[in-house]
UniProtKB/TrEMBL annotation:
Catalysed reaction equations from the record: DNA(n) + a 2'-deoxyribonucleoside 5'-triphosphate = DNA(n+1) + diphosphate
Pfam families, sorted: DNA_pol3_delta2, DNA_pol3_gamma3, DNAX_ATPase_lid
Family to which the UniProt record says this protein belongs: Belongs to the DnaX/STICHEL family.
AAA+ ATPase domain boundaries: 37-179
SMART domains: AAA (SM00382)
Species the sequence originates in: Ureibacillus manganicus DSM 26584
InterPro entries assigned to the protein according to its UniProt record, in alphabetical order: AAA+_ATPase, ClpA/B, DNA_pol3_clamp-load_cplx_C, DNA_pol_III_gamma-3, DNA_pol_III_sug/sutau_N, DNA_Rep/Repair_Clamp_Loader, HLD_clamp_pol_III_gamma_tau, P-loop_NTPase
Protein keywords: ATP-binding, DNA replication, DNA-directed DNA polymerase, Metal-binding, Nucleotide-binding, Nucleotidyltransferase, Transferase, Zinc
Keyword Metal-binding appears in the UniProt entry: yes
Source taxonomy: Bacteria, Bacillati, Bacillota, Bacilli, Bacillales
GO molecular function annotation: ATP binding; DNA binding; DNA-directed DNA polymerase activity; metal ion binding
Name under which the protein is recorded: DNA-directed DNA polymerase
Length: 586
């Protein structure tokens, strides 16, 4: 007989053998005993959490010859044939490969026929979210009022893709990720069954890598067993899963405590050289410091540990750190992990995070810096002035003076333009204006419509009241009529990344995407003109060769148009847009 993977051999055949999902098991078993089963169920949850296995166990319990019972007997011909997948009245349908409406109509036509030799016809539709809209519509009426002998069980990993009309006609059960202890216990049963000695820490590594999925855990276990020799060791598990030993993390944490940055970066470089992914390392470091927090909190939480074993050296390390430090480390790594998702230079992000952690003080999230104690001279002046005011007020109150005149200070101008909802990157936009050319902005405008057509409709709608207003060889500026749209686009790194990628395909040039609200753009443009004396240059050079001016002073061309126009025309263009304003000379 051909070899079968662990997740197939050790698939649960009764509710008793299922790991976790107690809320699902209890509800279904009570319904079976009370004969109150309904016609449609929806099983949703992450992969490898037992949705399809539960559906088959439920189908066996419904049709078992010893029913009503809370468990299938797994001995009668009906139970055995369902286990083998050969029973004619239990139909398993894969919606991922049969998503068309024709396949669904074929099922619906056969639903009305009575079962051949069972009490119920059970239809298990796996990955139901893959069905087409037409197939859902065809299924809808049958799902609402099926024959008394038919039971539908829909399984999906993405319930949000199902129409609300389908969900409302089903009893929904949400399957949760399995705990590490549940996975650990199941793997022990498998290894004891095949008589293979094992290191429990190795099983913890596999359970942590499986991320709550039993099927993933058993597949990894199968792989580690094949790699191992006479026993399953921690080294084998670390090598196969790509995980890192807790001793390496101990060395990193010890070096961070001693502020030995060179050692920290050297250890991290060695892990990356061995093929470890920086994103995975960041996740494992978060788990490691979380385990240290648990050790620091209570010895009764040992069962919740995922990477660390409750040994004396880890207990000592946990108490060497303050809780503020550990919370700060987790916060730094979490933020870094989010930033790494949108970058190809993940190693640099991780190294930067480790440097921040080495300099972390643990007091309100501060990072040590040689400049942190140096105060701004303007701030010192204000402090001195306030001290004098306090002294003066105190003296006048003591002398019984009823009124006090407070000297007014002149506010310093803010360094960047600020709108109500979004702060535009003024410095970067000014750099773009310094190097902007008509050729570059024309390139962006020519590709604008084609790029928008390739975006999702919800994303393209954000650009309905936006237009490119300036561009250099490396970046371009987009003006938005509404601040909220500007903020939504600027904060959506995936959208701006897709936009620049489409531009790269069309223009052959990689641009940075900069956003600015409408009002801020006019304020910034006017400020830029004054700072660079472009209006003066315009008066002296506009009468000369305007073509040369346009090529030498790219942004000056737009300034000339703006300053040479009538104020009424300029105001009309601001209100309605240049595309809708036509000037007719009498």
């Amino acid at each position: 007989m051909t070899y079968q993977a662990f997740y197939r051999v050790y698939r649960p055949q009764s509710f008793r053998e299922m790991s976790g999902q107690a809320h699902v098991k209890r509800t279904l078993q009570n319904a079976l005993l009370a004969n109150k089963t309904t016609h449609a169920y929806l099983f949703s949850g992450p992969r490898g959490t037992g949705k399809t296995s539960t559906a088959k166990i439920f189908a066996k319990a419904l049709n078992c010859e010893k029913a009503p019972s809370s468990e299938p007997c797994n001995e009668c011909p009906t139970c055995l044939s369902i286990t083998e997948g050969s029973h004619p009245d239990v139909i398993e349908f894969d919606a991922a490969s049969n998503s068309r409406v024709e396949e669904m109509r074929d099922i619906i036509e056969k639903v009305r026929f009575a079962p051949a030799n069972a009490r119920f016809k059970v239809y298990i539709i796996d990955e139901v979210h893959m069905l087409s809209t037409s197939a859902f519509n065809a299924l809808l009426k049958t799902l609402e009022e099926p024959p008394a002998h038919a039971v539908f069980i829909l399984a999906t990993t993405e319930p949000h893709k199902l129409p609300a009309t389908i969900i409302s006609r089903c009893q929904r059960f949400d399957f949760k990720r399995l705990s590490s202890n549940d996975i650990l216990e199941r793997m022990k049963v498998v290894l004891e069954d095949i008589h293979l000695p094992f290191d429990e820490q190795a099983l913890k590594v596999i359970a942590q890598a499986a991320a709550g999925g039993m099927r993933d855990a058993l597949s990894l276990l199968d792989q580690v067993v094949s790699f191992s020799g006479e026993s399953l060791t921690l080294e084998d598990a670390l090598l196969v899963t790509g995980s890192v030993s807790q001793d390496i993390f101990y060395d990193i944490a010890q070096s961070l405590k001693e502020k030995d940055v060179a050692q920290v970066l050297s250890l991290m470089e060695g892990l990356i050289a061995d093929g470890k992914e920086p994103v995975r390392l960041a996740e494992d470091l978060i788990t490691f410091f979380r385990d240290l927090l648990l050790l620091q909190t209570s010895r009764e939480l040992d069962e919740l540990l995922e990477l660390v074993t409750p040994e004396e050296k880890f207990m000592q390390l946990a108490h060497d750190y303050s809780a503020d430090n550990l919370y700060g480390f987790i916060d730094i790594l979490s933020k870094t992990q989010q930033e790494m998702r949108f970058s190809h230079h993940t190693k640099i992000y991780l190294e930067t995070a480790l440097l921040k952690m080495a300099q972390y003080s643990g007091r309100g999230g501060a990072v040590h810096s040689t400049e942190s104690n140096v105060l701004d001279p303007q701030l010192l002046d204000k402090i001195t002035m306030l001290e004098k005011m306090v002294q003066s007020l105190t003296q006048q109150i003591q002398n019984g003076v009823p009124q006090v005149q407070v000297p007014q200070t002149k506010e310093t101008p803010r360094p960047r333009v600020k709108s109500q909802n979004y702060n535009a990157p003024v410095g970067r936009i000014k750099e773009v204006l310094k190097g902007a050319t008509k050729k570059d902005i024309q390139t962006i405008k020519n590709a604008w419509a084609q790029v928008l057509s390739q975006l999702q409709k919800s994303h393209a709608a954000l650009f309905a009241e936006a237009e490119p207003v300036a561009a250099s060889s490396s970046a371009f500026v987009v003006k938005f009529k509404y601040d909220i749209h500007c903020k939504m686009v600027a904060d959506n790194h995936e959208l701006t990344g897709s936009f620049t990628q489409f531009l790269l395909q069309l223009t052959g040039n990689m641009y940075d995407f900069l956003c600015i609200p409408d009002d801020d753009w006019y304020t910034l443009r006017e400020s830029f003109i004054k700072e660079n004396h472009l209006a003066d240059k315009n008066e002296s050079s506009i009468e000369e060769d305007s073509v040369n001016v346009h090529s030498d002073q790219p942004f000056l061309a737009d300034v000339q148009e703006m300053t040479s126009d009538d104020p009424l025309i300029t105001e009309a263009e601001k209100l309605f847009g240049k595309d809708f304003v036509e000037v007719i000379d009498d």
